[in-house]
Specification:
With 123 residues, the chain is an alpha+beta fold. Helix content is 49%, strand content 21%.
Length: 123
């Protein structure tokens, strides 16, 4: 949206929007979830109680390192929980979507739907 300079009495030459923004904006999307791999992780976990590292890796067709990095970001944000344990002598990792993660995904999906609706109704 184009901005035009408006004169403010207290501060000269402040840029303000030419008109108010009423439709949802893509800028407001949760950038943590918006990234493709992280969206895949939270979407997959939203449909299952939990998934193992191997199940997520295979479902998303990504490398171990890629999954580890993106899962860590989601875990740091509180969107997923990670449980590490041993099965016999083999280390295992399970992932589970948290309530906060589910809420963030629902908000993201609703925001995307509003963007699509605004685009369709604009024409």
């Amino acid at each position: 949206m184009a901005a035009k300079p408006l004169r403010n009495q207290n501060q000269p030459d402040i840029l303000q929007p030419a008109r108010p923004i009423s439709a949802p904006s893509a800028v407001q999307l949760d950038q943590l979830i918006h990234e493709r791999v992280r969206l895949g992780i939270v979407s997959a976990l939203a449909t299952e109680k939990s998934l193992t590292f191997g199940e997520l890796k295979d479902a998303l067709e990504i490398t171990d390192g890629n999954l580890s990095v993106h899962a860590r970001k989601l875990e740091d944000a509180g969107y997923i929980e990670t449980r590490k344990y041993f099965e016999g002598r083999r280390p295992q990792t399970d992932f589970k979507l948290t309530a906060s993660g589910r809420k963030a995904l629902e908000k993201y999906v609703n925001h995307m739907a509003a963007l699509v609706d605004a685009m369709r109704n604009k024409g």
